[in-house]
Amino acid sequence: MKIKRALLSVSDKTGIVELAKFLSDNGVEIISTGGTMKAIKEAGIPVTYVSDVTGFPEIMDGRVKTLNPKIHGAILAVRSNPEHMKALAEHDITPIDLVVVNLYPFRETVAKPGVTEAEAIENIDIGGPAMVRASAKNFKDVVIVTYPSRYAGLMEMLAKEGDVDARTRKELALEAFTHTAEYDAMISEYLKKQLEK
Which InterPro entries does the annotation name (predicted)? Predict the structure, then answer.
């Protein structure tokens, strides 16, 4: 199996425990955050807390947890670039090969009757889109999955081939950029409506 290390951090927990179990059973180290980590741990699956990787606690009510070179360096390093690999070694950063992230439920939050602007703003995900975009940018080396509907196909391909083919990696990157673009468009639309009041 080409994938050795995965970061799982999802708002929509559908199927995440099954995916984590599959990865763990196939020798993949799992890193996770908050609620996702809790769900994985409760299922008895080994998981490393992101703060143990970064050496830095989640701060500001979780606003800052994955925005760290130990995470982004691990995602963005081009494996065929000797300078990138040297930087990983120098800074004791282990590459991340698979990122499974979906974002805070902004649409669902602003659809609630009587939602305050403060509640809406706290549901603007920052670290999530940064990880999604970093992974999608480096799709040749990192597999990015943003939708639970993709888990079954991913597990099937990994079980059969031991890796994710180049076309699928690019398709998943396209889905990821579409996901973050739609997400930002929702936020933009919400703020526009606030200003029209």
Answer: MGS-like_dom, MGS-like_dom_sf, PurH-like
